[in-house]
């Protein structure tokens, strides 16, 4: 690793990109605003404002999967208000504090706990389902499938209860960024890239390429198990299910929805290999207009991170609902491997970031 004496010669233009590069400066304040705003919503829900999105205000058939399926506006709304106010104060501390010792540990523990709760625990599989069906709807609606208008699809796929789960996940991302910036700052590291004068051996590009390869191949293989079962159903093989249930799927046409999701997941698994292959860094020849140019790292990192987060929340639902003592229930559930899939994809994405990041434009440090 070397440390240059000046800034990265590659300049960043555009207000949005400049703001993103300055994320450590505003992440804590953004998390505070989000927490205060959501806390205010909680207070209004507790006072009778319509639109409480959990429990009694959620869709009846979604309450079983939601960890807040028991919630009431009066009871939980008040807790949301309190936690939102406390969260706003803690987020401001994360933005401004240079705490060490016990104070630092407490702030880090609180910050990462809130981020994990908002990203993984509170959302459920509806986020993943919506993200999976959106691409085919955008392409297929003009051709008659699904037989809906775009407005009708948005109403079905993005109701307030589902949009709220995405809003919670977005808040969790802000909390994660705020906590990470605080962690970097109080560790005498660069707030933007996290580098210090000594790079951890596991974070070096050579090491990241090694363990990232294992993670990427794991993330690519897992959805194949789901794809095999769903396509077996299409061709009439009742793999992991009864013949009667398979007949019902064919009668209703739901078997084709399963086939689409299986194909979508398998294609996503194949794209995961781009995190460790050359075509994930340099556009291949068949990409017209971009062949030979460098792939913007933010593109695969953002895409893979969104999928990993969605898989993590859906996987947490599976962890809670599957009867892990019943081998038939485990084998027959496509979500049993989602937690591992989320972890593998997240690790592969982190490895890609560590392997492809260049010199920091803030501190000038470079891993190469």
Description:
This protein has 368 residues and is mainly α. It is built from 13 helices and two strands, in the order βαααααααααααααβ. The protein has helices at residues 15-21, 23-46, 73-96, 101-121, 125-140, 150-157, 160-185, 205-234, 243-252, 254-272, 298-321, 327-332, 338-356; strands at 2-3, 365-366. Strands 1-2 form a two-stranded antiparallel ribbon. α2 packs antiparallel against α3, α3 runs parallel beside α7 (160-185) and α5 (125-140) packs across α11. The longest helix has 30 residues, at 205-234. It is globular, with a radius of gyration of 23 Å. The termini are close together. The model is unreliable at 1-12 (pLDDT under 50).
Fold topology:
Elements: E1 2-3, H1 15-21, H2 23-46, H3 73-96, H4 101-121, H5 125-140, H6 150-157, H7 160-185, H8 205-234, H9 243-252, H10 254-272, H11 298-321, H12 327-332, H13 338-356, E2 365-366
Antiparallel strand pairs: 1-2
Helix pairs in contact: 2-3, 2-7, 3-4, 3-7, 4-7, 5-11, 8-10, 8-13, 11-13
**Strand coverage percent:** under 5%
**How would you spell out the order of helices and strands?**
EHHHHHHHHHHHHHE
Rg of Cα set? 23 Å
Q: Which percent range fits the helix content? A: 55-70%
Uncertain regions spanning at least 5 consecutive residues: 1-12
What is the residue-averaged pLDDT? Answer: 90
Q: Numbering strands along the chain, what is their spatial order in the largest sheet? A: 1-2
Number of helices: 13
Structural category is: mainly alpha
Give a quick account of the main beta sheet: strands, pairing sense, barrel closure: 2 strands, antiparallel
Q: CA-to-CA gap between the ends?
A: 6 Å
Could you give the count of β-strands? 2
Outline: globular
């Amino acid at each position: 690793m070397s440390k240059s004496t000046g800034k990265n010669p590659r300049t960043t233009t555009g207000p949005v990109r400049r703001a993103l590069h300055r994320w450590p400066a505003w992440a804590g304040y953004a998390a505070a605003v989000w927490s205060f705003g959501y806390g205010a919503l909680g207070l209004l829900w507790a006072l009778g404002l319509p639109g409480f999105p959990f429990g009694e205000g959620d869709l009846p058939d979604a309450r079983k999967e939601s960890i807040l399926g028991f919630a009431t506006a009066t009871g939980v709304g008040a807790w949301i208000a309190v936690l939102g106010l406390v969260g706003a104060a803690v987020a401001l501390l994360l933005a401004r504090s240079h705490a060490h010792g016990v104070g630092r540990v407490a702030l880090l523990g609180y910050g990462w706990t809130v981020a994990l709760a908002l990203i993984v625990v509170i959302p459920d599989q509806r986020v993943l389902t919506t993200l999976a069906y959106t691409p085919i709807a955008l392409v297929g609606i003009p051709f008659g499938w699904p037989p809906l208008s775009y407005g009708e699809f948005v109403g079905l796929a993005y109701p307030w209860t589902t949009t709220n789960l995405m809003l919670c996940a977005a808040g969790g991302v802000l909390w994660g960024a705020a906590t990470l910036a605080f962690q970097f700052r109080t560790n005498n590291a660069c707030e933007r890239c996290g580098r210090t004068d000594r790079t951890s051996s596991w974070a070096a590009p050579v090491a990241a390429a090694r363990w990232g390869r294992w993670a990427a191949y794991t993330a690519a293989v897992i959805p194949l198990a789901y794809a095999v079962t769903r396509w077996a159903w299409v061709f009439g093989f009742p793999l992991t299910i009864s013949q009667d249930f398979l007949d019902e799927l064919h009668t209703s046409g739901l078997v084709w929805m399963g086939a689409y999701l299986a194909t979508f997941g398998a294609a996503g698994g194949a794209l995961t290999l781009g995190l460790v292959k050359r075509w994930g860094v340099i556009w291949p020849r068949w990409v017209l207009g971009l062949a030979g140019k460098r792939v913007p790292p933010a593109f695969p990192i953002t895409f893979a991170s969104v999928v990993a987060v969605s898989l993590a929340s859906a996987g947490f639902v599976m962890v809670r609902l599957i009867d892990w003592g019943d081998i038939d229930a485990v084998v027959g559930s496509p979500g049993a491997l989602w937690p591992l899939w989320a972890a593998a994809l997240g690790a592969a994405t982190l490895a890609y970031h560590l392997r492809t990041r260049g010199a920091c434009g803030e501190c000038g440090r470079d891993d190469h």
